C-alpha cells in the first residue's frame, strides 16, 4: 500500500486499474527478516509444509508477491531485477523487535530521531553478539560436563552396588 501511495504521489498511477503491477514496476521493495527459515521458505520455488493454517495463508500471499511478475505470471526462478527482494539481517539490528519484546529500545529511538539506519551490523552489535555466543557456548559446555559427571557417578554407584 505504501508503494501505491508513493507511486501516486510521483504521478505514475493514473488509474487504479492494474495498480499492483504499476506500483511494482515503479519501485523496488526490500524485505528484511532476521528469521533465516522464513527467508528460505519464501525464496524456495515450492511451498513447504506448514502446520498452522493461518501462517500458511500468510506465507502464500507473501510468496505470490515474490514469485509472480508484473503480468501476474508465475516465475520459474527469482531474479535480481525483480521488484521485491528478501534479505536476511542479523537479529541485533532488527529494530522492530523492541516493539514486541521486552528489550532496550534506545536504538529504535535514536534511528527515528536521526532518520538513518544501516542493515549492516555495527562493530558494537557484532561484539555483543560474539559475547552472547561465547556465554551460551560456555553454559552448554558446563551443562555437558555436569551431565557427564552425573553419569560417571551413576556408573560408579551401580558398580559399587554390584559388589
Description:
It is elongated, with a radius of gyration of 24 Å. The N and C termini lie far apart (about 75 Å). Helix content is about 55%, strand content about 5%. Helix 1 (about 1-10) packs across helix 2 (about 20-25). It has a two-stranded parallel sheet with strand order 1-2. The longest helix has about 40 residues, at about 125-160. The chain folds into 2 domains: about 1-90, no CATH class; about 120-163. The protein has about 160 residues and is mostly helical.
Q: What coarse outline follows from CA principal-axis ratios?
A: elongated
Task: Return the structural class.
Answer: mainly alpha
Instruction: Sketch the major β-sheet.
Output: 2 strands, parallel
**Averaged pLDDT, please?**
83
Count of individual domains: 2
Order of helices and strands: HHEHHEHHH
Strand content: 5-15%
Q: Order of strands across the biggest sheet? A: 1-2
Number of DSSP strands?
2
Computed Rg: 24 Å
List unreliable stretches of 5+ residues: none
Helix content: 55-70%
Helix tally? 7
Oligomer: single chain
Report how far the terminal alpha carbons are from each other: 77 Å
Amino acid at each position: 500500500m505504501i508503494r501505491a501511495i508513493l507511486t501516486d504521489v510521483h504521478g505514475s498511477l493514473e488509474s487504479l486499474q492494474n495498480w499492483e503491477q504499476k506500483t511494482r514496476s515503479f519501485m523496488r521493495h526490500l524485505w528484511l527478516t532476521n528469521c533465516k527459515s522464513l527467508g528460505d521458505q519464501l525464496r524456495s520455488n515450492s511451498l513447504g509444509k506448514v502446520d498452522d493454517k493461518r501462517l500458511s495463508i500468510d506465507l502464500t500471499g507473501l510468496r505470490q508477491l515474490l514469485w509472480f511478475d508484473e503480468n501476474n505470471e508465475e516465475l520459474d526462478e527469482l531474479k535480481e531485477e525483480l521488484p521485491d527482494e528478501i534479505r536476511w539481517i542479523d537479529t541485533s539490528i532488527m529494530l522492530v523487535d523492541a516493539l514486541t519484546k521486552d528489550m532496550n529500545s534506545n536504538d529504535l529511538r535514536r534511528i527515528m530521531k536521526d532518520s538513518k539506519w544501516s542493515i549492516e551490523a555495527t562493530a558494537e552489535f557484532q561484539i555483543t553478539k560474539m559475547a552472547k555466543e561465547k556465554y551460551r557456548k560456555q553454559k552448554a559446555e558446563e551443562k555437558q560436563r555436569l551431565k557427564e559427571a552425573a553419569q560417571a557417578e551413576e556408573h560408579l554407584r551401580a558398580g559399587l552396588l554390584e559388589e
